[in-house]
Every structure is written in structure tokens, then in C-alpha cells.
Amino acid sequence: MKSQKNNSKVTRRNFLKKSSLFGTFAFVNTGNYFRFKGNKTAGKDVEMKYRILGRTGIKISEIGLGTWEAPNANVLSYALDRGINYIDTAPEYKNGEEERMVGKAVKGKRDKAVIASKIFTTHTSTKKETIRFIEDILKRMQTDYIDILMIYQIGSIIPKHGLIKGKEMTRLKNENVIEALKQAKKEGKIRAIGMTSHGGGDFAGYVNYAIDSGHFDMIMLKYNFMAFPEEKELFKKAKQNNVGSIAFKIAGGAYDQKIKGYEKSRTPEFRRAAIKFVLSNPNITNCIMRMPTFEEVDNCITAVNERFGYLDKRTLEKYASAVKPYYCRWCSTCTQVCPYGTAVPTIQRYLMYYTNFQHRDEAVEKYFDLLPEQRADNCINCSAPCENKCPNKIPIKEILTEAHRTLYIRT
Ligand code: SF4
Ligand code: SF4
After folding, report:
1. Which of 75, 109, 293, 348 could form a disulfide bond with 71, CB atoms 3.0-4.6 angstroms apart?
2. How many domains is the chain partitioned into structurally?
3. Nearest ligand, CA of residue 337?
4. 397 touches ligand 1 (CB under 6 Å)
5. Is the distance from the beta carbon of residue 379 to the nearest atom of ligand 1 less than 6 Å?
6. Are both 117 and 201 inside the same structural domain?
């Protein structure tokens, strides 16, 4: 405890010192990548590295700071001063509070930050409605522009936001939305248009369309060491088409907390290994990571300076083999045979929020936002034909029954 406190003090002092140096950033072109020199971690020189986000030409740090489990504004500001310039947020995170926090943290250094946010447009959204979404984000962040604006969670079914089954592709192709985004780009309110997907439905079809259509400058997909072959191919295609690629969910979901003996296996070394694995893929522009503390910011910066090696591979393999029976890849194969329309991958994600990340209120609220038929009531007495179809042999009935008991009965 004591050493943690001392560490914080040291890094905060460094932070203040480095704040005054903020205007002296030096980018060094080293061929494919760019480096920010002058950082120090654990007494060693370290350099943040940068890649170019596809055809946007925007230079972004290899690691982006995710604000779903937001750090406080001081940690975020410290990350910025250490060269992590990419900040990922969304109106959905704490009902807009995270966007407000990001806005405050970048005050006075807005030009150093690349901010990405998202909008839940639907298949019926009008141009006017889309423009209002954009204006609302600008207002919350107190900024004149957002660097990257993504259409959020293509493939997910979320009735609360008007995301209806069977309308996923129509939603992505909604011309009113595209027109509004292009207009905002022309007016300088956004610099790049993107899309995100957690999977679901015709996942590959949506991402292929996004790349082929030419409307989208970047994509953001789940990807980590737990085998995501489809995503890997899509990132490759994106690179070939000069579309930027961001990876999220890179650390494998904290499932270790469910397994006796593995509860503390997600060490700083583990997290660095997870980052190194993703960044070893040259088709990926950057990866999003949670950085709730000053120490984690330093840890992430260290990772970009290390090569993915044999020990990293071993660390990740050990975790992967332990959590394999619990880790849903969102392939949606099971949902094709479920007679009830249960939202299998979505419910597993909400259970993960509740159990693994302790976001209990959010998980319960999201579960209640599902339609009754999407919830897991039916699993309890079902013969579970879904389980034979799961390529990862996940005990779906057992996990969803637990999810229903956890997320529904406890309210
Ligand atoms: S156990 Fe039955 S109801 Fe539950 S997801 Fe599988 S098939 Fe659907
Ligand atoms: S439970 Fe299995 S089949 Fe269903 S989405 Fe997850 S990994 Fe795919």
C-alpha cells in the first residue's frame, strides 16, 4: 500500500513536470512508424510509438485509452502528456459523464488529443437526428470537433436504442446518417467516419460493406490472443483498402476471476503481453486499453517498447487455456439454433460486466433493456441445442442460467 502511494506521488510529480514540456513533443519518423521521444518508465527511456489511421492520415498512438472504466481526469491528462494521444469514449458510458470528463481533461491541449466517440443511429434515423447526436457530443465535450465518430455496435440488437433484429445492414447503410456524417466532416465537426461491431448477425457482411462502400475511414473490432480469425482477415482487408483498424477487448475479459488459482493471473506482465500480441499484427493501427491508474499508463507505454516473445506467448496461452470454457467469441453460431431468440453472446457480456468488472448496476440495467424473449428465462428448462453448435464448447445453458439468476432475480 505504502509503495503504491509513493509510486503515485512520483508519477504525479513527473506528470506535472512533463506538463510544462507538453509543447515540446517531437515526432521522429522511423519509416512505417512515428515515435515520441523523452518518456521514462522504471528509469529506462521508453518511446510512445505511432501509426497512421488509414487514409485519414491521423497519427495515433499504438495504444488508445478506453474510458468505459474511466480513469480520473488527472490520469487521462498524464496519459496524454506521456504521448498516448488516442482517447476512446461514447455517450453511453455513464450517460455522457465520460465524454464530459474527456472534454475537461483535454482543455488547453485539445490539439494533442485524437478523440473518438460513437452514436447509436438506427435504420430509421433522419439526417436531422444524426446531426443532433453530433451536436450533443460536441456540447458535452465542450469542443468544436470530434476526430473520429463511429456508428456504434453494428450487429447488436438493443431495443432501447431502436436496434432491431434483421435491420442491422439497413442501419449501416442508412443514407440519412451517412449524409449527415459527411456534412459534419465537410463542416469540420468530425475528421473521420467509422463503425464498430461487437459481432452478431452477419458480422463479416457488415464489416465488408463498411470497407467496400468507401464511406468509412476506419473500423473498430474485438481482437485478442483468443483466436479471432474472421477479425484478423477483416483487418487485413481494411489495411489493403487504406481503412484504419482499431482493436478493442484485447485482454480477454477478466475471466480468470471465475477460475480458482487464476484469480490474479492478469498481472502487468499479462497485460503487456496482450498488448504486444495485438500490436505484432501490422494491419492493426492501435488497440484500446483500460488505464485506471498512473502505473497502468506507464505499464502500457512500456509494452509498446517490447517485442512479443516466447514468454509472452506462454503467459497468454496459460490464461487462454484456463478461460477457454467461459470465453464467448461472439460468433453467433448458437443463436441460429436457439428456438427462443435468446441473446446468448450479449447476455454473457453483461454477466462479465457484473461479475468480472463489478459494473453491477450497468449490467442489470442493460439486461432489463433486452426484450423479454431475448433474456435467458427459457434456458432453465431447455434441452440446449445451442451447445452442440458452439465451436468453443461453452456450457451455454449453465452460464445463461447463472446470468439470469444474477441479473434478473437480484433486482
Ligand atoms: S439453452 Fe436453449 S434457450 Fe438457452 S440459448 Fe440455448 S437453445 Fe436458447
Ligand atoms: S456461445 Fe459459443 S457459439 Fe455462441 S456466440 Fe459464443 S462462442 Fe459463438
Report:
1. 75
2. 2
3. 1
4. yes
5. yes
6. yes
Residue 145: what residue type? Answer: Y
150 and 125 in one domain? yes
Among candidate residues 260, 287, 319, the one where a domain is terminated: 319
At which residue does the C-alpha cell 428456438 appear?
339
Same domain, 307 and 332: no
Q: Which of 316, 339, 338 is nearest to 327 (CA)?
A: 316
Q: Which ligand is nearest to the Cα of residue 394, counting in written order?
A: 2
pTM, two decimal places: 0.84
- For residue 153, the CA-to-ligand 1 centroid distance in Å is 23
**Residues 202, 346 share a domain:** no
Domain with 73 in it: 2-319
Distance from the alpha carbon of residue 373 to the mean position of ligand 2, in angstroms: 18
Q: Backbone dihedral region of 4: left (phi > 0), alpha (psi from -120 to 50 degrees) or beta?
A: alpha
Which of 330, 337, 338 is the pocket-test mutation for ligand 2 (most atoms within 8 Å of CB)? 330
Measured distance CA(216)–CA(205) in Å, rounded = 14
Neighbours of 287 (CB within 10 A): 29
Q: What is the pLDDT along the chain (411 residues), one digit of tens a residue?
A: 333 333 333 333 343 343 333 333 344 444 344 555 555 555 456 889 999 999 999 999 999 999 876 668 889 989 999 999 999 999 888 778 889 999 988 989 999 999 999 999 999 999 999 999 999 999 999 999 999 999 999 998 888 888 888 899 999 999 999 999 999 999 999 999 999 999 888 999 999 999 999 999 999 999 999 878 999 999 999 999 999 999 999 988 766 666 676 766 778 999 999 999 999 999 999 999 988 899 999 999 999 999 999 999 999 998 888 888 888 888 889 998 999 999 999 999 899 888 877 788 889 988 998 988 899 999 999 999 999 999 889 999 999 999 999 998 654
Answer for the pair 117, 150: CB distance below 8 angstroms, yes or no. Answer: yes
Name residues whose C-beta falls within 8 Å of residue 23's C-beta, 6 or more positions apart in sequence.
none
Show the cell assigned to 368.
432489463
Nearest residue CA, atom 6 of ligand 2? 328
